[in-house]
Amino acid sequence: MRKPIIAGNWKMNKTAKQAEELINQLKPLVSKSKPEVVICVPYTDLWVAKQAIAGSKIKLGAENVAWADSGAFTGEISAEMLKEIGVEYVIIGHSERRQYFGETDKTVNMRLLQALKNDLKPIVCVGETLEEREKNRTKKVLKKQILEGLNGVTDFTNLVIAYEPVWAIGTGKTATAEDANKTIGYIRSLIRKTFGADVAKALRIQYGGSMKPSNAKELMAMRNIDGGLIGGAALKAEDFASIVNYK
Ligand code: 13P
Q1: Which is the closest atom of ligand 1 to the Cα of 233?
Q2: What spacing in Å lies between the alpha carbon of 165 and ligand 1's midpoint?
Q3: Is the dihedral of CA 168, 159, 147, 218 positive or negative?
Q4: What confidence tens digit (pLDDT) does each residue in 124-141 have?
Q5: Computed from CA positions of residues 198, 201, 204, 208, in that sequence, does the dihedral angle turn out positive or negative?
Q6: What's the CA angle centered on 196, arms 192 and 201, to 5 degrees?
Q7: How far does residue 86's CA lie from ligand 1's centre (Å)?
Q8: Whole-model pTM?
Q9: Which residue's C-alpha comes closest to atom 7 of ligand 1?
């Protein structure tokens, strides 16, 4: 059985002070949660978030990681820096990184291998744009993202994939549960063909894109959906907790 994982992606929201407040509100609301609960926060919030989650079930994640160990990479943050704070998860290849900051399947792959080498648990994001979807290119796009992004990975134990259709992110438009389940089923079949049945069976694949309290239960009931990567709704303690406690 795959343990569900609900992760918040705060994106570029919340100062350190605001982060502390939000976590303090969230903690009692998720204390009995069944799924694994993760919050991926801006770099400047990591330190205070690590203190604030102490004694709770909430796990800490970052929103990216550099592919190099150290050196002349202005603006980047290394795996070692994240590990020292106590970061456990790291988002890699979010569509906003791909869209606005030139992230490619190649750089996703480099970051991913670096995360795994340093025992960080990667949440690798894939997903098609509206244009790609309308041109019936969803499978082709996902195949490229997965095969190139995951190239060279041998141990999948700590890896999570997030399927986030770009047209559903921050738009209020959610993929229907059936649709998301079907596409995630395709991703799983691709993983099976490429990396083997055991990997495909154990690998957790989240859905992301306008997931909220009102649709979490329906999405989570789907066979192939093992969790959610939550943007907007992760910024309010009650909303995020209600997704975490979707049952
Ligand atoms: P929203 O939940 O705001 O649509 O964002 C989804 C997302 O991008 C999570 O990584």
Answers
A1: 2
A2: 10
A3: negative
A4: 999 999 999 999 999 999
A5: positive
A6: 65
A7: 24
A8: 0.97
A9: 231
Backbone angles phi, psi at 210, to 5 degrees: 55, 35
Contact assessment for residue 210 and residue 174, using Cβ atoms and an 8 Å cutoff = yes
Q: Report, as residue numbers or ranges, the catalytic residues.
A: 94, 164
Q: Write the pLDDT tens digit of every residue in 67-124.
A: 999 999 999 999 999 999 999 999 999 999 999 999 999 999 999 999 999 999 999 9
Length of the chain: 247
Torsions phi, psi for 125 (to 5 deg): -95, 135
Contact criterion met (CB below 8 Å) for 241 and 30? yes
**Residues 90 and 82: beta-carbon distance below 8 Å:** yes
Give CA–CA dist 54/25, Å, rounded: 14
Secondary structure of the chain as H, E, C letters: CCCCEEEEECCCCCCHHHHHHHHHHHHHHCCCCCCEEEEECCHHHHHHHHHHCCCCCCEEEECCCCCCCCCCCCCCCCHHHHHHHCCCEEEECCHHHHHHCCCCHHHHHHHHHHHHHCCCEEEEEECCCHHHHHCCCHHHHHHHHHHHHCCCCCCCCCCEEEECCHHHCCCCCCCCHHHHHHHHHHHHHHHHHHHCHHHHHHCEEEEECCCCHHHHHHHHCCCCCCEEEECHHHHCHHHHHHHHCCC
Of 124, 105, 111, nearest to 67 (Cα)?
111
Tokens coding 5: 């994982």
